[in-house]
């Protein structure tokens, strides 16, 4: 992000594609803002039954809230506003919303499946838009073939994560497309920062520290491996400032993905508490009540919980 930009990335659309992209972007520490007018196409769904992790499905409102909780937890800004236009501004863009103040961003991800009117003026409209027959009407809409499969477009810094095919309208497929596009954005941001393609490939998954061999707990082993694996493809020689900067950043990123058993347990507990809190609040509001929620919990899980509580009290005495 340049010193004049408000954000590294502005995402237009807070549905599955936009939120999925945002999580990957924010976790890479790219300053990200999401504009969502609350009219994602997923809200037209009566009930979501094919999204992994919800065996009996989940109501759309709860799922929508969980998505937005996730992007906030990842560290992005969420604005409830409609984007009216995206305008070029030097090396980036000015994003003009309907009600709130305009922002500048180095990159923009279009993640709404609607007509894309806010993108008019950025490129040849015959290339960006297409005319189709919709019932008895002739309408103009954003051309789904305008962007490549990784979301890149002929306009540098503009990416499209909106559905490319009819199948992408499925929530889980839209989320996958958002993740794919974010992967490209992260790689491009690294390239701008002096990385080279082989090293810029983005990875975001946590691994167990216990899986590391003893030698890999030593940073020097990572240094030797990086220089051997990426040295030949680097545009500069090992020892030069650019090479050393990228090497240190890459190694720091990779080493940070290894979690101790204590860290894994702590994150699991936090995740369970956040999910339980969200579902309990929604269930009580909807009239299910705490008693029904307790009935849904396995009896053995309740006994284990009570046993743990008694043990903690005994240890404190």
Using brief descriptors, characterize the structure shown.
317 residues, FAD/NAD(P)-binding domain, 7-stranded mixed beta sheet, alpha/beta, two-stranded antiparallel ribbon, single chain, 10 helices, globular
Number of strands: 11
Structural class: alpha/beta
The overall pLDDT average reads 85
Shape annotation = globular
Q: CATH H level of the domain at 7-192: which superfamily?
A: FAD/NAD(P)-binding domain
What fold name goes in the CATH topology slot of the domain at 7-192?
FAD/NAD(P)-binding domain
Which CATH class of the domain at 7-192 applies here? Alpha Beta
Order of helices and strands: EHEHEEEEHEEEHHEHHEHHH
Summarize the topology:
Elements (H helix, E strand, L loop, with lengths): L6 E6 L3 H12 L4 E4 L24 H15 L2 E3 L3 E7 L2 E6 L5 E8 L14 H4 E6 L2 E6 L15 E3 L10 H22 L4 H4 L6 E2 L10 H12 L10 H15 L2 E2 L1 H25 L4 H7 L2 H18 L1
Parallel strand pairs: 1-2, 1-6, 2-3, 6-9, 10-11
Antiparallel strand pairs: 4-5, 5-6, 7-8
Helix pairs in contact: 1-2, 1-4
């Amino acid at each position: 992000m340049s010193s004049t930009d408000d954000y590294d990335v502005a995402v237009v659309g807070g549905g599955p594609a936009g939120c999925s992209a945002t999580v990957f972007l924010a976790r890479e520490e790219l300053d990200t803002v999401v504009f969502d007018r609350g009219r994602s196409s997923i809200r037209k769904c009566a009930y979501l039954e094919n999204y992994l992790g919800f065996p009996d499905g989940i109501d759309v409102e709860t799922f929508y809230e969980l998505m937005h909780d996730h992007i906030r937890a990842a560290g992005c800004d969420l604005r409830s506003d409609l984007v009216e236009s995206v305008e070029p501004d030097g090396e980036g863009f000015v994003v003009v919303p309907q009600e709130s103040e305009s922002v500048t961003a180095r990159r923009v991800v279009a993640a709404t499946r609607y007509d894309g009117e806010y993108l008019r003026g950025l490129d040849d409209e015959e290339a960006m838009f297409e005319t189709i027959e919709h019932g008895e009407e002739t309408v103009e809409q954003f051309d789904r073939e305008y962007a490549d499969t990784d979301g890149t477009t002929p306009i540098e810094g503009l990416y499209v994560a909106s559905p490319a095919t009819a199948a992408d309208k499925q929530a889980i497929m839209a989320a996958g497309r958002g993740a794919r596009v974010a992967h490209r954005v992260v790689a491009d941001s690294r390239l701008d920062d002096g990385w080279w393609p082989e090293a810029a490939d983005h990875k975001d998954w946590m691994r167990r520290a216990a899986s590391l061999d003893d030698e890999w707990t030593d940073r020097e082993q990572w240094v030797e491996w990086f220089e051997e694996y990426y040295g030949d493809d680097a545009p500069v020689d090992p020892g030069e400032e650019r090479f050393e900067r990228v090497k240190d950043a890459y190694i720091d990123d990779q080493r940070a993905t290894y979690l101790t058993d204590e860290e894994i347990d702590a994150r699991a507990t936090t995740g369970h508490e956040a999910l339980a809190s969200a579902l309990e609040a929604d269930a009580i509001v909807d009239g299910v009540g705490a008693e029904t929620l307790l009935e849904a919990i396995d009896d053995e899980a309740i006994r284990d919980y009570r046993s743990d509580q008694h043990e903690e009290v005994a240890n404190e005495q």
